[in-house]
Amino acid sequence: MGKFVTVAASGLDAIRLHPLRSLVTSGAVIVILVPYLAGLAVSSGIQQEAEESVQFGADLYVSALEFGRTAAVPLPVAERVREIDGVTDVVPRIVGHVVLGKDRENVVLVGLPANKIPPATACVDGRLFQNGTSNEFVVGSELAHRLHLKSGSLIPPFYKNPQGDRVSKVVGIFKSDVSIWQARLMFTSFETAAHVFDNSGFATDLLVYCRPGYEVAVRKEILRSISDLPKPDSGTIHLRVIGRQDLEIRFARALLHHEGIFNLHFLLVFVVGIAVTAVTSGIGLSERRREIGTLKATGWQTDEVLLRSLVESLVLSTTASLVSLLGVFVWLRWLNGFWIAGLFLSGAGVVPHFEVPYRLMPIPVLLLFLISLVIVMTGTLYSTWRAATVPPSEAMR
Amino acid sequence: MRQRTISGAAVALPTLLILGVLWLTTDSDRDRREQSREFQQLTRGLGFGPVLDLSECDFSLDPRLAAGCPLDLGPVAGGKCFCRQHTFSVFFYSEP
After folding, report:
1. What pLDDT digit, counting tens, does each position of B34-88 carry?
2. Crossing angle for the helix pair A19-55 and B30-43, to the nearest 10 degrees
3. Per-window interface: B 15-34 vs A, CB < 8 A
4. Smallest Cα distance from B49 to chain A, Å
């Protein structure tokens, strides 16, 4: 036991013996692991917010399909859906894209009937908009920063409408820590949104609320009875219904990331990491080969040399994992994902003006330790084994 | 003496490590989650993917808004990778 500990402790000496090599190996692993863990942490944070989006959203989302793509739903459809047994409420919603400002900032414009939203909310600094075409908006934190908007700011006409373009007023700003999807949002009344898009009588989707247990039946009834609507001019409008379960199924798939290039990219990076560690651990470091040759010449067995190398790898990979974990924590919590959030969240700037969501879950953290160990050990043990299995005279040459 | 120090370190370091990891991975964002719920109740469910606007791919923002990625040229070799919001997505979800 004593000999075992002594040999294992010599692994720590090996780290001190080649400080530059230890630094380079740990550094290479940290450079690989930090963006990977940051990506996984942001992914988990997004998933948590997406789960809330599904949980607190409507039971069914009804939209129209034309040429296989999503289209606007005529508002009379809402009345027909409301008549279906099991439906408790139907809320029309407009979600559209506009650009604002001289830098043409992309904005998501959402319109909901003012009587369907609470009179006050804690997630907005300021107040919510009034009913009707008052052209009052609540804007997202990222948008407010980029366009220098605050409560009370006026926005010059940014749309074309034959009934006249109007000056809009900002009445509230979403708090930066509310959700990532508030960042570029303009939230207003349904009538104002319809006026901005000059498209009254339509909604982009109908949000259907059902009595518990009626979701499947209501969905079937919508698709059976009002799936194919005759258009005013010619042709038909087909309806598309998305339920809560359809979205929940996607969470399981999202976790696997199988089809994402994110994982493929990092798989290649891990392979490069193993090659780098192999070079720094013996294949490219003749001094280390000579050291192993000397150990063998003084009576060390191959398994002892490998144990020494194993402890060295374990300490290096644990240190690299720990530093990576702390680095990701600092980067995402205290630096709010400065620069790196822009890589993972399309639409975020170098300095995000919203709180970047992240979760450091135990499984990704364990995966981090495992990957780190595999990278360092594969690179180190192979080169050590090669040097330890040749005659000492050849290794020392 | 040295062996005892090493043994102590061998126990203390992983213990500290595990405690640190547990501390870092503990969910401490309860306030944020409550505000996020309020936001979702206000907008009635908006947002799903790692995208903040509708400039390129509605599907990447929210699959409820679009039937699929508009840049998905499926039959073309690598056609699914033309959408930059899908190509390096950290939160991949497939089309129905």
Report:
1. 888 999 999 999 999 999 999 989 999 999 999 888 887 777 776 777 787 776 6
2. 40
3. 17, 20-21, 24-25, 27, 31-33
4. 7
Query: Reduced to 3 states, what is the DSSP secondary structure of residue A94?
Result: strand
Cβ distance A343 to B87 under 8 Å? no
Tokens of A245: 């379960």
Nearest to A357 by CA among A47, A142, A103: A47
Structure tokens at A156: 């010059």
The DSSP code for A334 is I
Read off the amino acid at residue A149: L
- Whether the Cβ atoms of residue B85 and residue B51 lie closer than 8 Å to each other: yes
Q: Which residue has the tokens 């061998």?
A: B10
In this complex, is the C-beta atom of B64 within 8 Å of any C-beta atom belonging to chain A? yes
Q: Which residues pair with A172 in a beta bridge?
A: A126, A138
Task: Give the mean model confidence (pLDDT) for residues A151-164.
Answer: 92
Please tell me which of the candidates B39, B56, B65 has its beta carbon nearest to residue A95: B65
How far away is chain A from the Cα of B77, in angstroms, using its nearest Cα? 15
Residues A107, B7: C-beta atoms closer than 8 Å: no
CB contact under 8 A, B92 and A123: no
A40 neighbourhood in chain B, CB within 8 Å: 90
Closest to A122 (Cβ–Cβ): which among B38, B51, B90? B38
In tens, the pLDDT along A302-352 reads: 999 999 989 999 999 989 998 998 899 899 989 999 999 998 898 898 999
Retrieve residue A269's tokens.
């990076």
Tokens of A165: 């373009």
8 A C-beta contact, residue A318 and residue A30: no
Residue A234 has phi, psi (to 5 degrees) of -160, 165
Please indicate whether, in this complex, the C-beta atoms of B61 and A204 are within 8 angstroms of each other.
no
The reply to whether residue A178 touches residue B39, judged by beta carbons under 8 angstroms, is yes
Find, in chain A, the residue whose alpha carbon is nearest to that of B47: A181
The token pair that represents A232 in the structure block? 């005013």
Residue A217, token pair as written in the block: 């039946």
How far, in Å, CA of A344 to CA of A333, rounded? 15
CA of A24 vs chain B CAs: smallest distance (Å): 22
What ipTM score was computed for the predicted complex, to two decimals? 0.86
Contact B67/A at CB under 8 A: yes
Closest by Cα among A138, A244, A118 to B45: A244
**Residues A280, A286, A288, A293, CA torsion sign:** positive
Helix (H) or strand (E) holding A68: none
> What are the Cα distances from residue A344, in Å, to A35, A143, A327, A340, B61?
10, 18, 17, 7, 13
Do the chains contact at A69 and B70, CB–CB below 8 Å? yes
pLDDT per residue as tens digits for the range A27-59: 999 999 999 899 889 988 898 899 999 999 999
Contacts with A353 from chain B: Cβ below 8 Å = none
